[in-house]
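Dear all,

This email documents one entry for the complex benchmark we are building for the journal club exercise. For each entry we list the sequence lines for every component of the assembly. Then comes the predicted three-dimensional structure of the complex as a token string, followed by one or two observations. Please use this as the template for your own entries, and keep the labels exactly as they appear.
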Amino acid sequence: LVGTELLTGSVQDRNLVELARALRALGIALVRAVVVGDDIDAIATEVKDLSDRVDVVFTSGGVGPTHDDVTIEAVAKAFGVGTVVDERMRRALEGHYGAPLSPDYLRMAKVPRGACLQMGPDQSWPTIVKENVWILPGVPNIFRHKLDVIRAHLRGPVAFRRAVVSCSLDELSLLAQLDGTVAKFPNVLVGSYPKANPSDPPTKVTFDGTDATEVENATQHFLGLLPDGCLLAVERN
Amino acid sequence: LVGTELLTGSVQDRNLVELARALRALGIALVRAVVVGDDIDAIATEVKDLSDRVDVVFTSGGVGPTHDDVTIEAVAKAFGVGTVVDERMRRALEGHYGAPLSPDYLRMAKVPRGACLQMGPDQSWPTIVKENVWILPGVPNIFRHKLDVIRAHLRGPVAFRRAVVSCSLDELSLLAQLDGTVAKFPNVLVGSYPKANPSDPPTKVTFDGTDATEVENATQHFLGLLPDGCLLAVERN
């Protein structure tokens, strides 16, 4: 997540949760998110590091026409290349703003050398992809729109399954049931979340995995350990 | 920010923006935020890296009584130490839950070896600090409460000053004015933000710095370059 505004508290990020949900639905595990300011070297260092460590990297923000939009240049730097005007991008911009483009507008046609452009299902605007780095905009409604491009091109190896159990007891009263379930189902990720908002139950327990049977068995095991009357709800997705 | 729930999209983070605002008001620049899951090694690696690079690190989340609360252990691991029961923490817990504590409750008295405890202005509950790492809870209303402890103990070297100019023109129509101001005031950080929500102006331009006169001069310079009639508002803080 690129943007000095996120580090000064001027803006509440809304993109991470949207990306996380979209990736999860595609069977892609999000393992790390990093927030950095509008600084070429900071972005480049982070992109290089993440690109080496994971299958796919997504950037949000820092694409646009102004001096503080430096993500394209930073991704280029991460891969040791410069930026070049992409002809398809130039034509797309000319279609929108009219030809020929002034130098200010032409700047928006620049991509990291060797990048490819991916179109979404509506063919409206290309998304720039350099190696395994997908460069997405920061404005939340445009970011959400770009998730359709990801959905059109990427797919994870498995479907994630989840059950959520809401209980009227607090976490401290559920330790034995939690520990018993965790020990018996090592392939199911069990999470325990105390009330964070007034409308939340005292404890939410989540069961996550890629094997639907194991997730269901772990959930049933936990439910069987619960004292009578403390179960509020079970949701599965 | 520690929490698998942030990486699966189950929970929208609310703590970063609160921390960012609190630090900014204290004159402390937030330079980086990282989101990792409930994984000891991932947290430990990140804490060690950040602790070496910056003056102060804050963690949010992963403190509590259940198996997926591993931040204390991870911070200990980051510094190559184990965890020990802290007597002050034990007494605080006994005051709350009654003595003697069962092993489940005693687990919450553990701190990284060599950690110190900091009290906030209300003296209600200690905050664990290991070296330069402040360990904060993830539940948003408790996290916000803990910001008072930070305010009581930490102070940055300077006050940040900011002006925000709202314009009725889009970014592309303001490039010359932006570039002219950026070139003339190298010590003022100029940010340009297109409309992100329906209630936003077409462009918000921010002027950030530590020298009130420079921030004001840059703002005035930019205002002087604006075409008639496109200024919507100027806010200063």
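Observations: Chain A touches chain B through 60 residues (CB under 8 Å). The radius of gyration of chain A is 22 Å.
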